[in-house]
Structures are given as C-alpha cells and as structure tokens.
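Q: How would the structure tokens look for this protein?
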Amino acid sequence: MAVRTRPIRTAVVGAGGIAQGQHLPGLRVLGDRVEIAAIVDMDGDRAAEVAAEWGAPLSFTSVAEMLEEVQPDLVLVCTPPGSHTDAVIRSLDAGASVWCEKPPTLSLAEYDAILEHEGAAGPYASYVFQHRFGSAARTLRSQIAAGDLGAPLVGVCHTLWYRDTAYYDVAWRGKWETEGGGPAMGHGIHQMDLLLSLLGDWTEISATMATLDRDVETEDVSFAHVTFESGAIVSVVNSVLSPRETSYLRFDFADATVEVEHLYGYDNSHWKWTPAPHVDTDAVSSWAPTQNFASSHAVQLEELVSSLERGERPAASGHDGRRVLELIAGLYQSAITGRRVQRSELTRENPFYWSMNGASATLKETLDA
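A: Here is the predicted structure in token form.
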C-alpha cells in the first residue's frame, strides 16, 4: 500500500467556536502534514476573517463552490447537526474524506445514506468522538481485548451536565427536527461512544426519559439499562439539569474496577484501576498506561490524518461510527414506546430508523423515491 507523501489539502466548513477552538488548532499541530486550504461559512465576512487568521488562502460561503475550486482531500464539518448530511455527501461525492462533528447525523437512515457515497478504498466519512482516543482509554481497550481484567460485568456511563435556559435560545437546539434529540444525542453521545468503543455492541435496552425543566421539544434527562453482547449490564444517564457537572464511567470486571471522572476531557490522572480482592495488588502497576496524552480533537485528528496517509479507513467511521447512533435510537424507541428494544429491531421497517422520535416519514419517502 502506497504511503501518501504530499500534504493533505483540508477545508473547514463552519467558522464558529468549535472550528476555531478545536479543529483549526488541531490542524496547526500537524504542521506540514496538512494544508489549510479554505474556510467556508454562511457569513462571508467571518469566513474571510478566520481564513486570514489561520493562513487559509481562500474563503467561501458555499460548500459546492469550495469543493469545485479547491478540490480538497479532507473536509472538516463544524456546522449545526441538521446540515451535516448534505455537507458530508457533497464532500464525499467530490472525492474528499470527511471528519464531521457530533452527532454524525439526525438518524440511522441519514448515516446509512452517507455510507453509500463512500468508496471501497475511500473517501471515508468519520466523526468526532475524541474521548476514545486518550492514552488511558486506549490502554483499557487493549486490556479488555486481551482479557487482562477478566470479563466485563457491570458498568456506569453518566453524563451529568448543566445547560441553562439561555443555552436553548439558539434556534436549532432542543428540537427533534434540527438537533435529533436532547442530551442523549447532543451531550452524552461522547461518553456513550467511549463506552461502546470499550465494550462493543449492545443487544437490548430499556429506557425512560422526561422533560422536567427546560422549554424544549426533546427530553432534558434520560435513564437507560443496557445489556451488551458480552452479557455486561450498564446504567446510562444523560442530563442537562445537573448543577455539579461530571462525566463518570465505571467498569467492573471480574478482576478489577476501572473508573474515569472528568468533565469535557481527561488525561491519565482522571482514571483509576482498582484490583479485585483476589488479585495481587502488584498487578496494578502493570495496568497503568505507559504514555499520558489527553482525550482531544487534536489527538483524534492526528490518528485520522495518519489513517488517510496510509490509505486506510479511519476509526469512528463505518460501523464503528454508527454504533452510538444505534444505541441512541434504541434508547428513544424504548423511552417513547415504554418497552424493551432489541438492537436487531433497528431496521428500515422501524420508524425509529428514520427519525430518533419515530415520527418523521419524510426522509424515508425521499430516500425511497
């Protein structure tokens, strides 16, 4: 397989806070491995200002125009959720791979529609799930694969965040049609992706949700009980009503408990390995990560670029990027219908495949036409 030698020409779509705070700094860290070729934003003045600040020679207000003129190798999509699918498909059809902010799409149907525009050897669409890329998570993933900690048995995955009423003044937030859901879709998705990247696929979910305090169409809190293919059982809570914010994951294996508590990112200091009573405590020293790098956009972006340089499918793409949307769709179906949901149910015949609240047939009619 040929290894790429020239810089990856990159365009950034959306010039808001997430692009300037995370994506563009992440590109700069990569030095001459990438070329920031263009910035796209509906606000032409902002696009031009951000392009000048980050050394991009071109700015645009149209994705289509940018793709035709720049012909990038990689497009970073940093726009609100409702615009992801169109930008990703346009980019793939133009021959560019994509790294798109969360949530990937507003439904499983949209995600699968994007997959049809990938090529067997690329371009690929991958998604921002940076929490699985820190050194501690990588270490734990390797330990699970090797069976070093024993079988996974019990887990906790809690995203307890706080978003005040002013947060929802942004027009697209808190609406099924434009955000795809509440905290399960827009906030807890990061922790749930980390959970799934460690424990693999799930089989059954039982959930409840409510809108207790925020003036939104979607939920502002949800609780779920999830069973995994391994047999492990995990508690999942997503909230935007929690004044003491925390992100907490705990994994109880036969031979150890592993925990991480952080807020929006972690390094090794946020993690703890505790051996079971029957395990020699000296084993703990061999469990500790040998490197210490934080979960971050920059770390995931470096791995993505390395994959593209090698001509390989990146992590958090294909099925690997889809599984968290499956879990969220199952969560919403269970909470709305009041029954347990099997992962195997989430097929094209299921209304929750087409929209997270099971209420929209518009996309199905469009894709079936």
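The two ends are 39 Å apart (CA to CA).

The longest strand covers residues 241-253.

Upvote if useful.
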